[in-house]
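My current task is to audit a protein record that another person submitted. Alongside the sequence sits a line of tokens, each denoting a local backbone shape. Where you disagree with what is written, explain briefly why. This is what I was given:
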Amino acid sequence: MTASVTPAARLRVLDTGLADARRNVALSAALIEAHGRGEVPDTLRLHRYEKCVLIGRSQEVAAAVDPEACRRRGAAIVRRVSGGGAVAMAPGILAWDLVAARGRWGSLDEAAAGIGGGVAAALRELGFAAEFRAPGEVAVGGRKVAGFGGAFEGPSLLHQGSLLVEADTAEMAELLGLPPLPVATLAELGPLPEAGALAGALAAAIAGALGAEVVAG
């Protein structure tokens, strides 16, 4: 479902590129705090992580990851600002932070359906048979290619997600101490679009779900 907003709505889009996990987590925290104070407009931040595992803010490290595998593979373990389970990240995974006025959505499920449906539609336009699966993922051929979740923080919605473009999924499972993951990368499923086209399609899809137009930041 697309959010009900005025046609004049704008979504600022930033691409902060590749950074280590601590810097990316700090930028996420700064963005949601600044939005809550009314210092920045609704913003989508696209970014990528150096190899790491992000754990939810309430998780215990030993229960969420395999610390020895992380040391062996050179993966940092960093606690993110949001809740949920541990997620392995790598440079070939495109991540996003969305901060927007919470009044744009009636519920977190509505936000997930709108954004997830938009991401799936964008991937279909790029040649992938993608579908949104509640509560928070996009799949191609039954295999997850994107996952996301959100939370309301004061007056703001923080919605975070990631798209598996290129990654070693076996290594990701090892870092998490899990059996093989039921996921796929876009690189496994078909010809990859140019990176800028993929980022642009993702930004347009999320802006469309908000009923907003993209403004480069």
